[in-house]
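Service request form, structural biology core

Requester: graduate student, group of Dr. S.
Request type: structure prediction, single chain
Budget code: on file
Notes: please return the result as structure tokens.

Sequence provided:
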Amino acid sequence: MRRNLDLTALRSFVAVADTGGVTRAAGALNLTQSAVSMQLKRLEETLGTQLFDRSNRRIALTGAGEQLLSYARRMVQLNDEVVARMTDPGHEGEIVLGVPCDIVHPAVPEVLRRFNAVYPRMRVNLLSSYTRSLKELYSQGKAQIILTTEDECDAGGETLVELPLVWVGAPGGKAWRERPLRLAFELRCIFRASVQQALDAAGIPWEMAVDSESTRTVEASVSADLAVHAQLEGMYSSYMAPISHGGALPDLPAMRINLYAMDGAGAGAIGGPVAALRDELRSEYRRCLRRDHDLARGAAAA
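Core staff response, request fulfilled:
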């Protein structure tokens, strides 16, 4: 006899895997912790296998759980797509999403893909600019959602992740050994002041070799091993790599990726899609952070 999987239980399973715990998943799903635990138990009973390793403080997927996760994501996503298209086909309009260029990858493309599957008639205008410019646009009502990179979070925003700045350069490059250290930054990059202060405190001479309005110019200069740059951990472009400097360069401060989104009243007729896009961004950036931390732990253990 064929058995049917409970989509509600699968949604809870995905939420626990994404958030790393039953308590956080319950909060995200607006359920009680006991309800989520019961759904997981029923799912394990249906499949006749253990999906989570509960022996450590942090809940982790078993091999069977890892195998189920990709199926569960697709099933939940397909369910949401069907419901959205059959019950609310009239959603259309435009959402302006502002994201600093250096944190677009790897999260935003996946978020936009999933959002488009549920809201195919909604256009997302992705605007890439500097944090200061994006906050001005948001305050003027010209962007419904923005992400920022800041050392603090203003009222009305929420911090998605906090990541350290790391030194990046050309893969296998040697520019980081030069003194004065040659730097490449955009004119309005919010990271450059912190980098300069760290170098001054460490007594390392530096010069601004590339001072440009263009992110592409900075990427080209760094990838050519003409200068070094700093980016948030895990957010590097394919043209750059973290520098293994062995302490020759100073540690850099942590920065926050913050999210600001208009509420239902502020977003007007597109309030529902705005909230959905906000939730996708929140989930994806936190998932990327957990993945990078797990990879780092695995590399350290090896």
